[in-house]
Structures are given as C-alpha cells and as structure tokens.
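Here's what a typical entry looks like (VOC domain-containing protein):
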Amino acid sequence: MKFVNPLPFVADIDRSKRFYCEVLQLRVLEDHGDFVRFSDGFALHDGPSLHRTVFGESRLEDGPYGRRNLVFYFEDEDIDAAFERIAGRVELIHGISEQSWGQRVFRFFDPDGHIIEIGEPQ
C-alpha cells in the first residue's frame, strides 16, 4: 500500500484553485473541473461532487468544509519572503513563530477554513 495524497473537499473549486495557484504558487498538473492535482502531490476535489460520490447523497449544510482539525503542511526555503508574500492575502492564525522543536512556521486558513502551515525546512 502507498499513500498518494490528501484530497480535501472544497466548497468552490475555482476559488480554491486560484488560492493555491496565486497565494501558494502551486503549479496545476491536472485539472478535470471537479478535481485538481498540483505539483508535489497536493490535490483538491469539488466538495458537493465528491460528497455525492462518497456518501451517495447531496450535502445538507452549506459553507466551508474545513473543521480546524487538519493541517496542510508546506515548506519554503525563504520563510520570511513567503510570509511577506502571503500574509496580507489570507486570514492569519499567527505570524512566524519558533516552535518548541526549533522550526519557524506560520499558519493561516485557506478559503474553506483548512489550516495551512508554512515551515522552514529542517
């Protein structure tokens, strides 16, 4: 068995694709309309479509899919430049801070409320 990638549900696939391309500067490898795969193994799926596929029914509630219980972790060689580029475009959880293990990171929310963490490589 091999883990391939996380596949978060998103409420608006076009909005989320723009966010990950423009804010995090990820590169799209595949775009099938309701499924987008980026470089480095990250992917998104249109929430209403995937909800019907997985559960066989439409989602009852509206709104974002993020539940503040999952972190998508990325690294950037220049965390200070990444913070300057990203901070004004997102809802920050916190600025750059050193973690107990010595790594500097910052965290924010994507458009669906999923937690994004950007850390410096260790």
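The chain has one domain: 9-119.

More examples are in the samples folder.
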